[in-house]
What does this fold into?
Amino acid sequence: MSLLAVDAIVKSFAGVVALDHVSFAVEEGELVGIMGANGAGKTTLFSVIAGNQRANDGAITFDSQRIDGLRPDQISRRGISRTFQIVRPFGNMTVLENVSLGVLYGRRRERSGAAAEKKAKDIIDRLGLADRIGQLAKHLTLAGRKRLEIARSLATEPRLLLLDEVLAGLTPTEAAAATEIVRHFHKAEGLTILMIEHVTRALMALSQRIVVLHHGQKLAEGTPADIARDPRTVSVYLGTATQ
Amino acid sequence: MTAQDARATGFGAAVRQAIITAGGPLKALPWDINGTDRTRHAARTAAVVSVAALLATSLPFLANDYFVGFGFSLLVWIALTESWIVISGMTGYISLGHVVFVGIGAYVAASAWHTLPIGIILPLAGLAAAALASLVGYPCLRVRGPYFVILTFGLSELIKYIVINIESALAVSGRVLFGAPGIDTLYLIVLGLAWASVMIALTVRESRFGSGLRAIRENEEAAETIGIPIAKFKAAAFVLSSIIPGMVGALLIMRTTYFAPLEAFNPQTSVLIVTMAVIGGSDRPLGPILGVVFLVVLQELLWANLPQLYMIIVGILLIFIVVWMPGGIYGRLQQIIATVRR
Amino acid sequence: MSTQLLIAALVAGSVYALIALGLNLIYGTMRLLNVAHGEVVMIGAYVAYWALSLLSVGPLVSALAAMPLAAALGAIIYFGLFRKAMQSSEFMERIEGNSLLVFFGVSIILQNATSLLFTPNQRGYRYQDEIVHVIGAVVPVNKLIVLAIAAAVCIAAVLFFRLSTLGLAIKALIQQREAAALVGIPLTRIELTSLCLGFAIAGLAGVLVSMTEEISPFMGFPLTVTAFVVVILGGLGNVLGSLIGGLLLGVLETFGVALTAPSYRSIMIYSVFIAVLLLRPQGLLGAQRART
It folds into this structure.
């Protein structure tokens, strides 16, 4: 039984079809990459899975239960956590407060502030944010804010983590560090990860499987090697000889 | 000459020195509510407020009716502004219709005056306000930002006109309350309400619920994504913020012994609540108290002879605070004390 | 009978549309909630009053002075209050709430300064109030003049936004701020122009109102409220919407009161207002997403 099953999801906005009968599944412990040009529907897919948007048609099953139509906070409590492409930290709160909130309202639903802070500090350490723990989130660099976004999501103790372009806007050094963090949490914690990424090299390196979206449709699915060879993907990304 | 130079020499230095010396005892007060000692600080604040309230109970025995009346006004505004920040300060949804809760409480009290005892009327008024808040809370709080501001104002006016029409349909032109308690009793009751209001604001701020509300204020979508039930929390804060104003409304008409909808639902009250809270500093539970004291004292000095001048000064103050001192008086004081501590 | 009501509705509606037009311009381009808008109208009204009383200058002429005066007031507020504040990101984070409070302050100051200078009493003047008969209705000439001018300005506004470069620039700014900057539209200049234009229109509306109604320092507030109702009806930032919304409100108010009773006027207006805010906050014509 797959952890996550996306079944013929359709999502349209005022006549524009963002997702056109997209289906795929994610097994527990997998790291699946989502690839596609801008406007292919990747972030919309995440929004629909996480509940920020409601699909027009289709079903989403998580842990054998239907979750389409649930509110984001309900879905979060079931164990799905997402980051945003344009990060949304709680700007006027410190790094510690941001991550503590994830512990307080995540799957564990921690009641005690002190216990939440303790767990938050642990995550902050492991994400290399310890030196900035007391800083206001709005004063962090972009790389810092992206890490904070991941840390806050991890604090909710998700079973499935949706990462939306966590490498965008980072310098090569920062990107390498972030990639390492993702790899670590996937391998060491056995976290199931669904990852949108434009930095194709990193995506190919990290993913066990890749799903390619194009104009809202699933274009191809397979291992990184398969995808790299797939003629459809190649033509979409590189064009054919006559172009 | 930089600001630092100015601080080190002359007048600036003298003032700074004076503050440092006088500030010794001030340091013990829980000004700084950031960081992990937050809860301890909050507990200390609560203790200080409670001691102050206890001391304030002596006023009726020490002063004449004029001062007790003045204290009554002060405490009414404190109770109202502190309840306002539970919804508007914490969630960032600025309500411009807070007077509607006061008015409903007043109306319930006026209607039930000759049939029920005060001990029942008071909580009933609070309950009525809470009932209204729960009724309109969910739909209203789905509306964001500027729309919410205008909506709360519209709601308050709508209720006002509905009450006006009900009263005229009942052929009632104003209700008079006979046998209302004297100013001393009313003062003590409102003191209790003001104390409760501050305590609620402090408790909410320190609680898990309060952190959730603040997250909603920072970024609502992110808050929902990490598991905060935003609709429920907003509605809960809204209802919580309505109870004390309802009871205050009942007290207010006991004071004036006369209920008239235009006065009870006066939008100027809502405006003054927002103004006092903003001037004092709407980000922290104790901020509004400063705003209230400032404006009420100013009002006492100017209202009798120059009411328009008072209002003009209020207007200037409001602009000044919003543009140059966003943290309010409280925020500025915090900054000063933080610099002095270093 | 209904022609009478219709003309009354049109007169009222056209003035509401005019006032709302200015408000929408200011909000649309700068996201400023100008709750002092009614006070600018009030100032226009007082200019017309004093021009007639002291200088025997008719309102149609004094309008030519009231409009630049109001625009100047807008410029003073822009440079004095908002220019610096809008550079702070903290201020801009809550621009709508902050601007609301600042304009509150402005409205309080304007109301009370006027009250202090000219007493809080109502005043009025007589201007062109001879009665004429129009398609079975009995109307004073001044109301027809108000309707004519308000309608003319509204039509001019629609044409302006559709045809002139400046109008297009303003529309661009309303719809997509960053993109407008990218294509080279000088934001500050356009913002300032919109603000001054909005204020000027409000000043004109004040002159018009003074022709048919009594004026007082506190007349602005109900007008501000009405303007917001219109703007919400038509959609915040939607210029054409506020024109239609204004007419709609005029019709609703006039016919609604005629069918029920004057005391129900406010209940009706606020009910519609709240219903629109709850059910379709982007307005009957607006396109922005306004709900969470």
Summary: The beta strands of chain B are 175-176, 258-259. The mean pLDDT of chain B is 86. The longest strand of chain B covers residues 175-176.
